[in-house]
Structure of Triosephosphate isomerase:
Amino acid sequence: MVLWIGTSWKMTKTQTEAIAFASRLRIGAAAGGWPRVQPFVVPPATAISVVRDALGPDSPFVVGAQNAHWEDVGAWTGEVSVPQVADAGATLVEIGHSERREHFGETDRTVNWKVRAVLRHGLTALVCVGEPAEVRAAGGAREHVLSQVAAALDGVPGGSRVLLAYEPVWAIGEKGREPAIDEIAEVTQALDAEYGGVMTALLYGGSVSTANARDLLHTPGVTGLFVGRSAWDVNGYLHLLRIAADVAQEAGEVAAATVPR
Ligand code: 13P
């Protein structure tokens, strides 16, 4: 089992700050890294290339972009395309974060177009889904999320490089509420049952911290974490990587102990 542990910096960090962060990651990787963990960082577009450079050659870190347009080139002022973020050094593109759905008009339809563009260029798509508080209160969380994923993956062949991130809107950001494991397990189990064989990993995101990461990684179906605030300080992110490496090692030992001889 490999655990994907990543952070989106959202609209934070200058290039200087990004380089300082990435330099610490490079030192951590050189000191032995995090076995059975796939780490990734998603800087703002302005810092993708400097982060890639600061991580150095052969880095275990995947570098991502927070968004990309569905068209490759053209008159789309303010947008960046998949070939452009790939040119800057990204090999993963985050699509459909709830902040983009809420503030920038992303819909299930544009999310699908973007996912197809990312895959067409051979990058990994990280598709974010999650229900708002009122949908959860009305008992519709599972249905809402399954329908978002079905729309996002419409026409996408099984076996494509797709990560799903389940991020309930009510759990994200400063006003977010930390979820109970039961609340998210209901959705992650359903996603695992439906897409377990076809997606690369299923991440949980929203108020992840060093205090709850271990429990969250034991939630049924969850094989990674997607972290905002708790990982914006490099020490917080390094701590989360350490926790994940410990969880992955324990899981490996349990698996080895139960293999029939
Ligand atoms: P927080 O960890 O700050 O709640 O943000 C999570 C998130 O939006 C990751 O995409």
Summary: The first strand starts at residue 3 and ends at 8. The mean pLDDT is 96.
